[in-house]
Amino acid sequence: MGRISSLCVLLLVFTVSLPVAASDSSSNDPQLDEILVTATLRSAPAIDIPASVTVLDGQTLRDAGRANFEDVLGLIPNLNWAGDTSLPRYFQLRGIGELQQYQGAPNPSVGFLIDDIDYSGLGTAGTLYDIDQVDVLRGPQATRYGANALGGLIYMRSAEPTDTLYGRIDLDGGDYGTRSEGGVISGPVDSLDSGFRLAVQHYYTNGYYDNVYLNRDDTNRQDEYTYRAKWVFTPSAKLRIELTAMQVDIDNGYDAFTIDNSRNTESDQPGVDSQHSTGVSARVHYLTSDTVGFTAIATYAKSIIKYSYDGDWGNPVLWAPVATVFQSSEIQNRDRTTKTIELRLGTEKTQGFGWLVGFYGNQLDESLTDLSLSNYQPLGTPVDPVDDQSNSLIDSGYRARNLALFGELDGDFTADLRWSLGLRGERWSADYHGTTTDFLGTNTGYSNAPVAITAIESVTPANLSPVNNLWGGHASLTQKLDSTQSIYATVSRGYKAGGFNLSQGLLPNQLSFNPETDLNAEAGYKADMFDHRLKINADIFYLYRHDAQITTSFQSDPTNPDDFVFYTGNAASGHNYGLESDAEWRATERVTLGADLGLLQTYFEDFVQQGATGQTLLTVSRELANAPHWQAAVNATYRDPRGPFARVDVTGMGGYYFDLPPNETTSKPYGLLNAKIGWETARWSAYLSGRNLLDKRYPVRGFYFGDVPPNFPNEVYVQLGDPRTWVASVSVNFGGERR
Predict the structure, then answer these.
(1) Helix or strand or coil: residue 148?
(2) Contact (CB, 8 A) for 632 and 652
(3) Among 233, 402, 547, 586, which one is least packed by beta carbons within 10 Å?
(4) How far apart are CA 537 and CA 530, in angstroms?
(5) Residue 278 to residue 304: CA distance in whole angstroms
(6) Which DSSP letter does residue 733 get?
(7) Cα gap 412→269, rounded to integer Å
(8) In contact, 330 and 371? CB cutoff 8 Å
(9) Phi and psi torsions of 379, nearest 5°
(10) Rounded CA gap, 592 and 586, in Å?
(11) Dist CA 623 CA 627 (whole Å)
């Protein structure tokens, strides 16, 4: 809090003498702004991209969002996320993606980049403050990003330096103890042919659960700091150097499950969900001639993640009628470092014949300690503080390397028919060294306390070094119907590396799994009509998966809610198909309307689940988990150049399976209503926003297992989405253009 307050004071002193910003002329322009997609190998208008893409610009992020990527997910067709964390960390595009990472090495299906910095599988870093654009590319993006983009790619880009000196202060306050303080300073440094931008924000809320046992309302809090810095150096029209740095400090609590699925938790060991991520990137773009450009991108990211939870969701008073002792907890500590380098050389133009070649390298290092503690002693049995414990510790180190060569060719068959071909070859290799220790020990009863190991039961070492050679690419045709409309057809092949499973009790044939490949066929329509007042994107797709990677789990000890065996295997095949569409219409000078729709069907065949002794539990052919059949959104924005502002968003999604069998439980369809009103001037703006105004009760994650002694019947447990919330905000602008 002190750091942000000090920065806001400095910002105020620094900018108070700047001239008042000019009025925002965009509100007087009946046209919609042209959007450039920056997540592709070469930036291009969205209408020219032969792929399913959704772009959320900075104005949309400010109008519809608050603090985190979760706020705007409902605006992106066929994008979903899995709870079980305080903020979205794991995403699914067209039904493909991870639901969690309790054990094992990172193997993401959806790429997640912030200013080119790789945070795949670490989506908690996706805070929205001073983010100016989000690109979401659906379907395999092998040519662009390779093995980590089987389902698609999410690319966030922070705001650019301004041409004139500019500053802003943002202050928010709301119910549930919500508050936010942020500031931006930006401007040119003409003597150095440069521009800079600095942004910092602190966001806090108590969260939406009350711990009635500890008498606290903040055990599921969100406490987040975001720092961004960008320096752009342009000494000539041919050279641009962009340096970006970011720091995200997430210190959230995690206490979101209850035995009665209410918002009143009873845990005596509330968990944490923290992520401290530092990232830097350097992007150099140089025009070697009038038509050929060279791009070099280097990034570094380090993340320290702590994730823990109370496995029994209870306390000694709650369990006293049935158990002398019942405690369970899980504590994970990850330290991940990612380094990437990318080199591209190719033509700059998007018409006529074009070519591009490139090299990509990625090294990921991660250390993991995963401590599982459990002690269950039923009422009436002799108390043994040691023998009744079931404890384990995973201590591992992991390194993965990706090396890839890629290329792309495109050209014109005719003036209105354009073709494109892309190919990528990639070599993925990994080294894993770890031990799993089963032990007897004692602890103080709190998940963050040290454990005194009294006896070692077993130590299982693991040393694995898999290597995969992979390839993918795309072929597409784009036909212009006229100057405002086009249709396209694309066939693309994606891939994902294989890997290994680390849970205890696995059979030899369950220790590793094969790479997955998929083949995606897609046809779409794009339009930018009526003098740029109406934009339409629509596509249909069919995706065939070979050796589809499916992750499942089973509870090997029904008296231990943390004794789950997690493993990934390969189904024989799978297929996903559906539709995505979005439209935006500038109906009048003051009114903009929008709508989005995603339809999805998923299916995988012949996934064999085996138990701890090798018996076949069942052969599964079913829909994917966390893949709703439909997602939809409509919105209306009113912005008057004289000051009044209002926006209404209605979003919804259909039901979906929470997980794989034996969890056959599903969610129910739901819809959410969000609204925001305010007043905007050149110097300041003020808003009141409400989310989930109808106070709908809806889940973001569900489990089905036994947690309640003494019989431990399987029941459904859900993590609930946010209830109705209110926030009032004020923003003060100083100096140049308003952003």
Answers:
(1) helix
(2) yes
(3) 233
(4) 15
(5) 9
(6) E
(7) 63
(8) yes
(9) -60, 135
(10) 4
(11) 8
Residue type, 164: T
As a whole number of angstroms, the distance between CA 42 and CA 143 comes to 12
Q: What is the rounded distance in angstroms from the CA atom of residue 56 to the CA atom of residue 526? A: 16
> For residue 7, what is the enclosing H or E element?
helix 2-15
- The predicted model scores a pTM of 0.92
Evaluate whether 75 touches 64 at the Cβ level (below 8 Å): yes
* Furthest C-alpha separation in the chain: 85
Q: Coil, strand or helix: which one is 469?
A: strand
What is the H or E stretch that residue 82 is in? strand 79-82
Closest CA to 147 of 488, 524, 549: 549
Burial of residue 558, with CB atoms counted within 10 A of its CB: 0-12 exposed, 13-18 middle, 19 or more buried:
middle
Please answer whether residues 288 and 344 qualify as being in contact, where contact means their C-beta atoms are separated by less than 8 angstroms.
no
Residues with pLDDT less than 70, the chain: 1-30, 102-104, 383-390, 440-458, 504-505, 554-563, 610-617, 736-739
User: Is the bond preceding 662 in cis, omega lying within 30 degrees of 0?
Assistant: yes
Q: Which contiguous run of DSSP H or E holds residue 326?
A: strand 323-347
C-alpha 21/C-alpha 708 separation (Å) is: 61
Rg (CA), the chain: 26
Q: Where are the beta strands (DSSP E) in 444-509?
A: 451-464, 467-482, 485-496, 499-500
At 175, give phi and psi (nearest 5°). -75, 175
Amino acid in the structure at residue 87: L
Nearest residue to 415 via CA among 365, 476, 352 = 352
- Nearest Cα neighbor of 543 from 503, 497, 603 is 603
Q: 299 with 476: CB under 8 angstroms?
A: no
- Express each pLDDT in 220-259 by its tens digit: 999 999 999 999 999 999 999 999 999 999 999 999 999 9
Q: Which two tokens stand for residue 562?
A: 């943390």
417 DSSP β-pair partners: 479
- Type of residue at 129: Y
Q: Are 77 and 581 in contact (CB under 8 A)?
A: yes
Q: With beta carbons less than 8 A apart as the criterion, state whether 703 and 717 touch.
A: yes
